[in-house]
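User: Hey, quick favor. My workstation is busy. Could you predict this chain's structure for me?
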Amino acid sequence: MEQSLMTGVQEGITLLLTFDPKVYNIIATSLMVSGTALIFATFIGIPLGAFIALTNFPGKSFFMALLYTGMGFPPVAIGLFVFLLLSASGPLGELGWLFSPKAMIFAQTIISFPLVAGFTMTAVMGVDKNLLRQLQSLGATKTQATWATLKEAKLGILVAIIAGFGTIISEVGAVMMVGGNIEGSTRVLTTAIVLETRRGNFGLAIAFGIILLSLTFIINLAMLHLQKKEIAGND
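Assistant: No problem, here it is.
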């Protein structure tokens, strides 16, 4: 096992330093799919989470429970749902997205937006309720008061985005189901790891795993750096 790990590390470094086009295509596809899905999830999740947190409406508890359920929903089940939607006999089959990056983005957006929305909702609900009342008493509009509340909760919202990204960049079941793991088109780091493991190429599988972990670490490190800057700016 130790020998396989060392071999994987060596192969990973070699593949990166030699600019292997297949490897860089897999890395680029992974970042493109997960990055695009995260953007969609952020634009859907943050407003939704803020709305639920700041608004009282009939059935709010039901929607909160639904959102929390979505946060823990099995990705492979979402993959099956998207597959059925996009299959030839499905309601969205005419789009022709199945086994394409668009289908993978669709699935990952559904997986990540409940996490972004849920953590955003929790962060906004954690802001002092008196702040909103004070701002409104000072003549701030509802939009201005809401924006100020979101600024107070921005560290929690940043955590929501990090959680959303971490979930989808490491997801394998849904993307393999709707993407097909097609070389040069829909193969990402997680599906490449599964493929090489099945082939018995453990060194290469470990190499892809190390690359995936390194990318995730670098992106999370950048997010944490932004978080520290925000904290320092508030002191």
